[in-house]
Amino acid sequence: MSVRPPAPRLALLALLMAATLGAGAESPAIPSGPLTLEALMQRMSSTTGVRAEFREEKTLALLETPLVSEGTLYFVPPSRLARITSRPGASALVIDGGRMSYTDEAGESDVDLSGNRVARSIVENFIVLFGGDLAALRERYRVEFSAEGTRWHMQLTPKTAPLTQFIASVEMRGVGPGLEEMVIREADGDRTVTRFRQVETDTRFTPEELARLFPPGPSAPLP
Amino acid sequence: MSPVRSILLLVAVLGGVTIAVATRLSFGTDITNLMPEGAAGSLADVSRRLADSDLARSMVLNVGAPDPATARAGARALAEAMAGHPEIAWLRTGVDDRQMQAVFELYFPRRYYFLASDPERIPELTTDAALRAQAERAKRELALPTASLVKGLVASDPLGSFRVILARVAGQQPALDLVDGQFVTRDGRFAVLFLGTRAPAFDGKRQKALLADLSAEFAQVNQRLGGELVLERSGANVFAVATERSIRSDVNYVMVISIVSVFVCLQLFLGSWRNLLLTGLPMLGGLVGATGLGLLVFGQLDGLTLGFGAALIGVVIDYPTHLMCHLCFSPHRADRALVLRRISPSLALGGLTTIASFAGLGLTSFPGFRQIAFFSSAGVGIALAITLWVLPPLVVPVARVPFVSRVVSDVFGRAVLALAPRRKTMAIISLGLVALSAPLLPRLTWVDDMSRLWRMDPQVVQEDSRVRERVSQWETGRLVIGVAPNREQAVALGEVVQARLAPLVANGELGGVRSLHSFLWPEGLQRENLAALRADAALPARVREAYQAAGFRGEAFAGFERALAQEPPPPLRFEDLADSPLADLVRPLLVDFGDQVAVNTYLQGVKSPEAVRSAIEGLPGVHFFEQRQFLNDVYAQFRATTVQQIFTGNLLVIALLLVRYRKLRPAVAAFFPSVLVTLLLLGGFAAFGVETNLLHVVGLVMVLGMGVDYGVFVVDSISDPEEMGTTMLSTFLGSITTVFSFGVLALSQHPALRALGVTIGVGILLAFLLAPLSQLLMPGRAGDERA
User: Fold this and answer.
1) Distance CA A111, CA A97 (A)
2) CATH code, domain with B376
3) Closest chain B residue to A83, measured at CA
4) Residue B219 belongs to what domain range?
5) Are residues B143 and A67, on separate chains, in Cβ contact within 8 Å?
6) Between A114 and B704, whose confidence is greater?
């Protein structure tokens, strides 16, 4: 555990996690007719597990060229998520309940993320999104939703601090219950675009997989 | 004085003192009173302060449940319930946002003051290769979802100084996770709370009430959350309350046995309810009077010292029983004045010798024992005065000598008188006892480990171990202490200690250290860091190049160049930390000791105390302090000193006997049985392999006090053989009631109480049995056998 100054932008993580769920998956539970936000949230809350590959591109003012990360995301309801990257380096970020931990190939481990006020709100946001708690989502964001057939578009604008301090907007696009793309625009102009493919929704993880992905103790698993 | 006047006077005096005592009575429970005094900064002083420090007042609570969420909910609910408790000074369930903010505000503007504890290494840390490695690392971090956390720091702190500071501060936090802002153990099974109590850990009354409230609140929380929660606690107060409860339970049944036995015994032997009640009067008066005088002199009496002192005052039961036996059963009882004239000097001498032997305790450097000495001496003096001047007119004669008294008086009286002319027999017995006991004395085993004096409840010990293991607490009783004349020098000394201990941590001989180094460096060292950075004029350009090579935009680092050139805030001082939300973390590390300052380095996982000692060898004012070992050493020293003072006190007793008898033989004769009792008692302990400790010595002080009384009573009766039976009856009654009062402590489960009970019980019986040997040294009557 370490102590950190309040860092205002960690909520991106929550949105990233939320957005990766169910990308490209079929939508058996969504009723026919025009897709609604309520139906989408209900479907997101019913998954048994998600495995998806992602490619993330960060455009930061600090860097001459965008940073690209690739890897796999695993989600186990109700509240476990592992984000394992293979490029540019191996790293693992794990959320297990309210606890968050991170390990990279340099052996660095950091278990304080949940101690950060902002990080806590990320976890809460994630739970709200996955749990299909539309009321809580609307409490935090102004939600704009539109759909054409099964294709949909959602824009979230934070309503309250600390999210307003670091996120300008989150834009998501998808088909059915799956998310295809998420774009996060930060208040300072930096931008992150994440695309998802080979998404497996309703995955059932074996006990061995779960033990490997969510080991007890402070360290997250490396690939 | 008429009986009515006596009673009125006594009632008036006792009533007045009782009112005064009741209105002013204030008991302290300062365990440090039982520690030696020492000059400021000495180990004795440190030990006293540690026993009453914030650390000793802290508690760790673990709330467990079948699932982590319920455990956290339980801990949150318990924290809410206890937060406003008047006995809780602070309560922490997770990292305080204010502390995080304080770390940023205090350290970020001063980040270049804390780059390297050895400023000569700064060029090595800022080589082109090192800067490139920093840049690559920063880039890796930006690829993470947590990039938003660090990207603001990359440009303003490209050297990673603030990150290093954070790592050092983080190392001082408990090895716990945070879930939903709540501390949890690494396995997530227990939620963790830390709290500090307002009362010292050894304030039994207040701590007992607090722990009871904690249990009650937890029971309610548990009921609300399904009844499957578990609460485990660690803290010095938990041990103190558990030990007190266990002792109290022992003492309670011992008291019942004592009171019933003493009452039955006195009633059987005295045959008068009124006289029975009168035997308690001197003790009652002694206790009330000594308490009043104690308050007058000390302002406050300590509960622990009062307990010991009251026990010692118990010896005064001898005086009224001696008085009663002679006034009621003496062959000369028809002439009260004669009886009083004969026994008063014996009683006075017995009382004065007891006071002399107790007063020896006051010569120690333990404040608590000085109180005990004063309290018990004053109590004995008052009880003696009541026996001599108040009781006589109140004692009623009995129509018929009770059967048991007649038997004891006849049997022992005749036996003693029969022994009187058999000086050879007495000499053989005495020499035999000396020959039997003396060779065994070198085999005596003294145990000064204080932890072995009290039986700790194994469940409490195991619970404490489990909690400490989960939380990886620092050892509060094992630390390196450096003492310096002022804060700045103490901070510098702490830095040297840290440097000496670091290799031990690196090679695994130490699990870790908690030191001021993690929070504060000497002002000079801080300035040297900044100067070393500024000395490299090319550094800003090299930083820019290294980061550009890693793909960063060069212009982003203009802020670093400006920050390095700007006038920085003044170096961080201890006062800055003490005035911030970090105060709780740093206060135990730098402590004002009067006109000196101590810098404390707490240790974890000490594998080799010798390695620690040798690491700090040669550092002036620096000690490896092991509180347990220190206290054991102190008590060993105290025990040895007390043994010496027994001899000193006994020289005083002999002087009193010489003044009284004006001849050597009766003086030595009165004292002689006590010497035999001491030898026999200690020889017996050695023979039976009893490990002796401080409490055996305290018991011995009491046995000697009463043993000399018995010797005096026998010596004074030799001139009047008709009185010998009555004297032996009174000493028998005195010894048997003492055995019932104190000897039953031998049944206790606590080694300390057992030691006291065995010593007093066996010792007093021996004192009674050997008292007739006083006759050996007295001038013989015509026709006596010559030794």
Assistant:
1) 13
2) 1.20.1640.10
3) B145
4) 57-95+179-253
5) yes
6) B704
Number of domains observed in the structure of chain B: 3
Helices B336-359 & B694-718 angle (0-180, nearest 10): 150
pLDDT on residue B562: 85
pLDDT digits (tens, 9 = 90+) for B201-217: 877 788 999 999 999 99
Q: Do A97 and B177 touch (CB under 8 A)?
A: no
> Contact B677/B767 with Cβ under 8 angstroms?
yes
Interface test with A, best of B72, B168, B178 (most A CBs within 10 A): B178
What pLDDT does residue A25 have? Answer: 34
pLDDT of B784 higher than 50: no
In a domain, A42, yes or no: yes
Q: Which amino acid is at A132?
A: G
A-contacting residues in B 45-84 (Cβ below 8 Å): 68-69, 72
| CB neighbour class for B19 (10 Å; exposed up to 12, middle 13-18, buried from 19) | exposed
CATH number at residue A187: 2.50.20.10
B302 falls within a domain: yes
Please state, in angstroms and rounded to a whole number, the distance separating the CA atoms of residues B137 and A107. Answer: 12
| Max Cα–Cα distance, chain A, nearest Å | 51
3-state helix, strand, coil in chain B (%, to 5): 70, 10, 20
How many domains in chain A? 1
Mean pLDDT of B481-495: 91
B265 falls within a domain: no
The verdict on B188 and B332 lying in the same domain is no
State the pLDDT confidence band at B531, using cuts at 50, 70 and 90. Answer: very high
Q: What is the mean pLDDT of residues A21-31?
A: 38
Does B407 lie at the interface with A, CB-CB under 8 angstroms?
no
The answer to whether residue B304 sits within a structural domain is: yes
On whether both B277 and B387 belong to a single domain, the answer is yes
Higher local confidence (pLDDT), B203 or B164: B164
Is the pLDDT reported for residue B33 higher than 80? no
CB atoms within 10 A of CB B32: 22
> Do B226 and B157 have their domain in common?
no
B164 and B150 in a common domain: yes
B354 pLDDT higher than 90: no
Residues B19 and B136 in one domain: no
Residue A2: per-residue pLDDT: 33
- The answer to whether residue B27 is domain-embedded is yes
Kindly provide the ipTM of the predicted complex, given to two decimals: 0.77
Q: How confident is the model at residue A220 (pLDDT cuts 50, 70, 90)?
A: very low
Boundary-marking domain end, from B535, B570, B605: B570
pLDDT digits (tens, 9 = 90+) for B48-96: 666 666 767 888 999 999 888 899 999 999 999 998 899 998 888 887 6
- Contact flag A98-B180 (C-beta cutoff 8 Å): yes
Name chain B contacts of A113, Cβ cutoff 8 Å. 146
pLDDT tens figures, B636-652: 776 777 777 777 777 88
Going B648 to B652 to B657 to B658, the CA torsion angle's sign is positive
Answer for the pair A170, A152: CB distance below 8 angstroms, yes or no: no
Containing structural domain, residue A42: 11-202
Which of B364, B384, B401 lies at the terminal end of a domain, its last residue?
Answer: B401
**B179–A114: do the CB atoms touch at under 8 Å?**
yes
B225 with B310, same domain: the answer is no
A3 domain residue, yes or no? no
The CB-based long-range contact list for B555-559 (8 Å cut-off, 24+ gap) reads: B556/A61, B556/A62, B556/B154, B556/B155, B557/B155, B557/B158, B559/B155, B559/B156
Residue A110 lies in a domain: yes
pLDDT score, position B582: 84
- Contact at 8 Å (CB) between B567 and B573? no
The shortest CB-CB distance from B556 to any of A62, A65, A166 is to A62
Percent of chain B whose predicted confidence (pLDDT) is above 70: 86
Same-domain status, B162 and B289: no
What pLDDT is stored for residue B680 in this prediction? Answer: 94
